[in-house]
Each structure stands twice: as structure tokens, then as C-alpha cells.
Amino acid sequence: MPTKVIQKFSISYMQVLDEEGNVDDKLDPKLSKDELLKLYKVMLLARRADERMLKLQRQGRLGTLPVCVGQEAVSAAAAMALDKEDWMVTAYRELAGRLMKGESLLNPMLVYAGFEEGNAGEGNDHLLPVAIILGSQVPHAVGLAYAEKVKGTKNVALSFHGDGAASEGDVHEAMNFAAVWKAPVVFMNQNNHWAISTPLGKQMNTETLAQRSISYGIPGIQVDGNDALAVYRATKEAVDRARKGEGPSLIEANTYRMLMHTTADDPKKYRSEDEVQEWVKRDPITRFKLYLEKKGILNDKLNDQFEEEIKTQIEDAVQQFESFTDYKIETPFDVTYGTEVASLSEQREEFLADLKKDQDHA
After folding, report:
1. Helix 33-58 and helix 300-322: axis angle, to 10°?
2. Under DSSP, is residue 135 helix (H, G, I), strand (E, B) or coil?
3. With contact defined as beta carbons under 8 Å apart, do 138 and 186 qualify?
4. What is the pLDDT of residues 162-205, one digit of tens each?
5. Identified catalytic residue from 52, 98, 261, 282
6. pTM of the predicted structure, to 2 decimals
7. C-alpha distances in angstroms, 141 versus 25, 226, 313?
8. Which residue in the list 13, 58, 270, 337 is annotated as catalytic?
9. Is 257 a catalytic residue?
10. Contact by Cβ (8 Å): 192, 162
11. Residue 9 buriedness (CB in 10 A; 0-12 / 13-18 / 19+)
């Protein structure tokens, strides 16, 4: 029986800034000097904060930590493309983006020490708590986006998930719903090539993650995730499209986790040091620093100033964290919903009553 081609598809790849700090003028998003310096400083802050929290964890002063080293450009640049009233929904490797959105550095320290107050602290406006369960946050982003559409606002939601989470049913269901209902949401896939110890090639048989957008009938693109300008441009275009009522988009940011999955992991058991060093050459912060120096807006003196300011900011946060005493065990019940839910209030009282019985017994 004769056949005919009814559709043809392709996926584009975007890189604006190469590894040597050279920019493609045609794709340059033309950020202002202040915006470029802010983007650099937030990425640098996230890197230094990660390094400090890793030391705290190794000293027994912090719990298990998912480090973000190597992936700062994805979340920081994507978050920069949002407006204040837009929603950002993250997994656990978006520290730079959360800082860009305005979250206090104290919050992640509290979270990784087991204090729920870190998920309801300063700077959490339109920023959902860190999601640990793979893919669970993606339907939440779609729900927020759809709610904004129903309310008639121009606000959008930006959701992050990893290559491992891309294999979860929640992610597929969320993307399908968003596509059908044209929810104003941007799906950002951080493809760091490793789902803990499982390489990408053993997770899926597609050449790109971005091509999954084809099956949902939405735009998809792969970008160099270590290129902050490419991530910003792709996200800004997707956000603008969503804001105009044209529905969701999928962006695959090709990046790499330079350190362990979490502090409970030893990456040397499943990947080679040669592979890591190849990605170190593509370090997003080193690349962006070279670009700013070539542009004449960053020099050693200003960079040293940034480093000192960041060091002070981090140490202040550590001091606040280690002197934190305002912990209440019932906090999870109080901050889960914006309005009171009768069943949750009943659970709260039952929990506190049981806790008191246990304390009295002890």
C-alpha cells in the first residue's frame, strides 16, 4: 500500500557564547552591563555557596547536599528571563536560579539541615520549595501556569527537571496536559548526562531530549547549557511565547554535573576523570568571565571585589544558620497551603497531641 510523508521534524541547537568567550553577534541577547554583571555574580555566588556548604556537610554541620557545580548557567540565566510575578518551580540543582529569583542564601542551609522553615523563608515569593522526588514538581508548574491562564493574567511558570526525571510519568503527563490546554509554562530540562550513576544512553534511545517536544506538538530546542547567553535567549523567547498565549515550550540545556550527585555519592565509581576534565574545559563561569573581560566590563579588581562581597555574604548566612533557633516542629503543617485546610489542621493537632504524649511518657 503506498505511503506518504505527512510531517517532517527537526530540532535546532543554539550556542551564543563559545568556550573561549567569543559571542555570536547575531544571537547575542544584548543584555545591559548591569544585567551581565548580575548574571555573573549570581553564578559565582552559587558556586562559592556550594563549595562552602560542601565543607559544612563534610564537617557534620549540614545534612546530605545536592551540589550544583557546573550547572549554574542554566538556572541563573533562565530565572533572569522571568518577571517578578512569574512562577519558578525547581528540583534540587537550581541554587543559582533560586538566588537569582531572590531567595535568601539562609534558606538552602536550613533545608539541608532538616528545617522546613527554609522552604518558607525570605525570598520565596512565586518560588516553590525544592522538590526531591523526581519529576513531582513538573505537574505543579503546569497547574500554576493553567491557574494564571484561568485568572487571565500574563504570568508564566518556569519548571526545571533533569534527564533522569524526564523518564518519569509525571513529566510526560504534565507536558501533554500543558500542550493540550496551552498552559503558559516553559519546561527546562537540565541534561547533565547522568541520572545518579545511570548514563543518558541507558535511559533513552533518542538523540536529544528536546525532540520529545514533537510528540506533544510544542516547540523544542537544545541549547548549550554552559552558555548563559544561549540559555537566557532561549528561555526569554519561550517565556514571551507563553505570555502571548501560544502555549508551552521545551528547552533541553546540555550541561554537566562536575561533582557528585549528592554528598552520599561517589562519582568515581561510574564515570572517568577524563570525561569530567573535558567538561571542566566548558565551565560556564570561566566562559562567561572570559566574555565579560573581552567586553571590557570585568577586570581583576572588580572580580576580587565580587569575591570579597560573596565571601562576606556567605559567612553571614552561615552565622545566621548556625545561630538559628526559631524552629517549630509543626511548621510543615502551617506552610503547606496558603489558606487553612480543615483536614490538615486536624492532622496538625493530632500530631502535636501524640508528640506531647510521647514526651510525657519519656
Report:
1. 40
2. coil
3. no
4. 999 999 999 999 999 999 999 999 999 999 999 999 999 999 99
5. 261
6. 0.95
7. 33, 24, 31
8. 270
9. yes
10. yes
11. exposed
